[in-house]
Amino acid sequence: MLITTAGVVIRERQIGENDKFVDILTEKNGVIEVSVKGVKKLNSTNSAATQLYTYSNFCVKKRGDRYYLNSSEQIKNFYGIRMDIDKLSLACYFSEVIAYAVPDEESSGEILRLLLNTLYFLSNSTRDLPFLKSIFELRFVCELGMMPNVTACIECGKFESEKMFFDLTGGCFYCENCFSDAESDNIVSLTPAVISAVRHIVLADFNRLYNFKISPLSQNKLSHVAEQYLLTHVGKSFRTLDFYKSITQE
Ligand SMILES: [Zn+2]
């Protein structure tokens, strides 16, 4: 069976001299592992299109559970990411999260869109890494179907208070008055600036997703909340995240 799909190469593994496996985040089939033959040969037409963090059209043959590359055509490469160890290590973390959490053979177009936007900003150096990391983490979990209820206090419906409390396990907010009744121990307090950033990332249309500013202090809190929300709901730790934090001192 031949399948045609657009996608981004999120991981690659060399096999011998000329062959490799690539993991591709596709539009409609989740993440697929594809065997690529003869990629190092001088006349290989698939060489550019199957590089890490390249967005391409792929035509693959499916035999049993396995995919084999038939042909490919590069749409856009994000080569700049591989020139910077901080950016590369952050992209590797996103790859590991995607490979682990995106369900097989399910529509994954919104996650692909989120990754493409993230790679664009990463390779063009227009936004800070913690900002891009937080947006990816929080929005990724939403796109997996675990969107927190961030509109108001879950108990009394109050929209704003001086402090709100975010229950990371339950995925909901409590106001100051209702907080004492909350039962989770995975709760963080948020200032209005961080609340509005969380609401924006969860609720904004894609074309406005990156259109907000945040102070360094609020970004620190947002970084913690977004990372913990992802780790809580994906339910795994990631060694690529540990590596990213070790080299950026975040
Ligand atoms: Zn309340």
Explain how this protein is built:
This protein has 250 residues and is of the alpha+beta class. The chain has 2 domains: 2-77, OB fold (Dihydrolipoamide Acetyltransferase, E2P) (Beta Barrel), CATH 2.40.50.140; 99-248, Up-down Bundle (de novo design (two linked rop proteins)). It is built from 6 helices and 9 strands; from the N terminus they run βββββαααββββααα. The protein has helices at residues 85-101, 109-124, 129-143, 192-203, 216-234, 239-248; strands spanning 2-15, 19-26, 31-36, 54-63, 66-77, 149-153, 164-167, 172-175, 187-190. The strands form 2 sheets. A 5-stranded mixed β-barrel has the order 1-2-3-5-4. It has a 4-stranded mixed sheet with strand order 6-8-7-9, covered by helices on one side. Helix 1 packs parallel to helix 3 (129-143), helix 1 (85-101) runs antiparallel to helix 6 and helix 4 (192-203) crosses helix 5 (216-234). The radius of gyration is 20 Å and the shape is elongated. The protein starts with a strand and ends with a helix. The relative contact order is 0.13. Zinc ion (ZN) binds at residues 153, 155-156, 158, 174-175, 177-178.
